[in-house]
Amino acid sequence: MKKLGDKEAQKLLKRWKIPCAEQFLAKNPEQAVRFAKRVGYPVVLKVESPDVIHKTETGGVETNIRDEEDVRRAFKGITRNVKRKIPKARIKGILIQKMFDGREVIVGSKTDPQFGPVIMFGLGGIFVESLKDVTFRVIPIKRSDAKEMIKEIRGYKILQGVRGLKPVNFMALENCLLAVSEMVWKGKKLGIKELDINPLFVNEKGVVAVDVRVIVE
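Structure (tokenized):
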């Protein structure tokens, strides 16, 4: 099994009409500064390496970067952090990506030994491991299943809108769940064993996949 690179993973999602955040691969700090200007501050910097499965755990992500000085600092810091955690990691560069507003959710899939491919939905970002507020369905799903999955999580009220926040675009969220289900089910020849979109940012306008992890056979 192998992990797809970020660009490969995003290309796969785009084939199934799942919106993805634009990103550029910088080989050095000055390139990173130029790309940050292109996408517009604030930006997120993330390591691009086939040897790093969970970027956050290795210090491979920095968010809310707002100026050139911080871009250079983050570029060097991420490289240093990853090399310290995984000395033999092959670092292809640092990805520069626009920082998005919205609520963070996770959409994923895995192969269950009993039920086969299943799809997961829940609160994303840092809340996945701590709150474990997720729900599952066997793939393929229908729109009624997608609606139920969204309503089943304890954080549903957060998506409905609290403290002045507008309700998220539930249709776009349902469409994303259906697209992932179809991608895994119809694209079996792709050999997708695991897939995580975390975070998937969702707001009143729609959804955008920010970080994608795909493991294939």
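The radius of gyration is 17 Å. The domain at 22-98 is CATH 3.30.1490.20 (Dna Ligase; domain 1).
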